Request: fold
Amino acid sequence: MDQLIFASEVLVNGLMTGVMYSLVALGFVLIYKASGVFNYAQGVMALFAALTLVGIQQGQVPFRHLINAIFGTHLESFGWTLPSVLAILLTAVVMIALAWLIEKLVLQHLVGQEPIILFMATIGLAYFLEGFGDVMWGADIKTLDVGLPQGISDAVEATTANWFGYGFFIDRLDIWATIIAAVLVAALVAFSQYTKQGRAMRAVADDHQAALSVGISLQFIWIMVWSIAGFVALVAGIMWGTKSGVQFSLSLIALKALPVLMLGGFTSIPGAIVGGLIVGVGEKLFEFWIGPMVGGATENWFAYVLALLFLVFRPQGLFGEKIIERV
Amino acid sequence: MTEMQTTTAAEGYVTADGRQIGGVLMDLKGITLRFGGVEAIKNISFDIRQGEIRAIIGPNGAGKSSMLNVISGFYVPQEGEVWFKGEKRGPMKPYEVARLGIARTFQNIALFDGMSVLDNIMTGRLNRMKAGFLSQAIWWGAAEREEIENRAAVERIIDFLEIQNIRKTPVGRLPYGLKKRVELARALAAEPGLLLLDEPMAGMNVEEKEDMSRFILDVNDEFGTTIALIEHDMGVVMDLSDRVVVMDYGRKIGDGTPDEVRNNQEVIDAYLGVAHD
Amino acid sequence: MLYREAGDFKTGYRSDGQTFPIRLDRWGYYALVAVAFLVVPFLINDYWANAVLVPFLIYAIAALGLNILTGYAGQVSLGTGGFMAVGAYAVYKLMTAFPDVSIVIHILLAGGITAIVGMLFGLPSLRIKGFYLAVATLAAQFFLVWLFNKVPWFYNYSASGQITAPERTVLGMAVTGPATSAPAKYLICLCFVFVLAWLARNLTRGTLGRKWMAIRDMDIAAEIIGVNPLTAKLSAFAISSFFVGIAGALLFSVYLGAAEVGEAFGINKSFLVLFMIIIGGLGSIFGSFAGAAFMVLLPVFLKNVLVGSLGWPTDLAAHIELMIVGALIIVFLIVEPHGLARLWALAKEKLRLWPFPH
Reply:
């Protein structure tokens, strides 16, 4: 019985982690749907967003290491601390500018290339952004605090202690993350279903040529989608950054979104969410039951192996349609 | 390439231009193919005889390409039997069908764009090259000998189709008409017993069509290759083929010599668009 | 002497199919091989061996391997680091278990073991394609690194969790262990490179190579003309992994001497080798070498300029290197998806017509 209660605590925590994965996966799905680009850099975008947010909030001088190295100065910071909301807004602006630059400098020149070439280009983008983020803000581990509640939720602990005689330890941050993610998803779905831009976005996703022929600007849609993905990355960056500090490993955690997508299918928003939950819960439970027998740290690979095995039996993912090949 | 003795059916017929057509090479019996709820092919039977040029025609969406895909093993029909050279063909992978001596071209050219014309045509002979892994790795003995022998065979086809000057050009750079010709060369390189052509003249101008028609007739004539083709250009079909199958909405509505088919009321209706009830 | 093919007539299909059809290329190649084997060993010092030549040779093998899989057979793999780790740990286990057997045999066996592991992880390629497969190979990367980290048997229960190469000799000359001289390291790697490059060339020019390329360019058509996708893809995985495994074995035993799996064979290694073949040229033997040289030299160059000459901090230089590498990848994919090899071929084409370009 105790075992079962422990397991359900693990399960709940897994669901919370899964929400975080879903959040990153969502960014992938948006870009993939609208441009057919499988954006490997989504994770690094989350890292970059978090770095920028910390930098702006704490008033650090951008590129100070570079400037100091070239001019022999000792710049550190502007000496202000911005309110979180303002910092987040400014970061969102930076992410939109980034989306614009990516469209202008990269995507525009790769129109019509094979998907795998585009994929490799985004690997290059990931490297560039990682280096760029570090040059801009420094590579030291930073703490991110935008005022989200943290720590074990007393309410949950008390309630579960009442029910089971055992209090669950759930981080309040995770609860907030879940709520914010739910709101974000609802907003995105509403946007794509009920607005003109949303319809245009879906049209582009379906067929570039056809969308062009009815007068939709591909450029505008792509910039918009990458901006939204940048914003989703920012939200994910805030969550992960608050949880475990802003550092390079953040982009590796974001890599977990890839197996999530393979489970859920690249084009399905519900798929990204369900996939995220499956991976979150699966890896936590696997680590809980099997981990101790094999030396632990199975979270490193569980999601990938799960996705791989799954795909072998169902190549189109959970929600994808069966592909009829034609010649 | 004339392996008539294995065919089971009775003796063939003599065509209008006096060519002797042999027994049944391929026999399709009651083929039905479904995609989910859609029936692309409904209970179709016909045969292809040794040495003939057999055309499959019909309006768009009639199921012609699906039929060709069934013959080449790319689609597996839910019902019906495929007999080839007097033997019933079990469930087979496309590459196993290719090894039986069935080669094809594609409606939307399916060449290997990253390779040269020569290499593309050489891929047609892959099934004839048997050198072991070790021999290939050290490029000694069988591998090198085989490469040279098959190169010679490929050069004969290059001469036949008059594409000598582009043999080392990457296929991706070629214009459409030449690509079609290279694709035919690749299929011919396999020295197939049955050659399937999926709209060999689609998108060509009159001159290119004439060239292609001449090549098809020459292949049939010089190598004795049996050919099954899909084509939209009625003039071409009626000129080239010995017998024609007409399909509409997945059903067979006519089968016979070009003259017979031309006078078949149901075929005329299908092409002139009588309302289906 | 002008660079020409006129007057260099081919009298048979054999001479038409040779590796260097132009006479001057052929001579250049012979000269290069002669210098590499007969001159460089006498000039090489520790700095050149450790900073440039030995890593270049080893990564050239890895790049050849990945190029067979990705450039020729079209199956993108992000598991190269994991497969290199298999080679490294296999050679370590073999070296310590059978100290009397020649290290050369151990290295070859390590390649063989990696080939089997590679085939195993290549099985999903029969069902999934493109970036689905690329992500699936990440499973190999993360699982293998975890495995070598967590199962003490692989590192012989050493307290540090590291593997350390004991001294082994070839023809009386130490090639592994701390006492190895620079020429010895260089020569053993060079021998492997020479033979493996020759094998790669042979395999890619013949039947097997055509099957791989057919699968790469249009897998459905390839199957319909008679290529069995199972054998074509798995053979690509096996042979590619054989090369990559040997590279991993050499990297650990000859170059590093000691290794910790997460550090030496992490996901960054996978990307490093992938970048080599993108920059060098997908589907090109020469490109594998060019890319390896480029990616080995770039950090050396940047370090010399930024840290050595300008006196910038090392971490800043490292971050700028990331930016440059990332940007280069994008630029190459946009401007010249066939990489340095294609640029080289274009230059030669121009040279062949020079000085009358029309």
About this structure: The mean pLDDT of chain A is 83. Chain A has 15 helices and no strands. The radius of gyration of chain A is 21 Å.
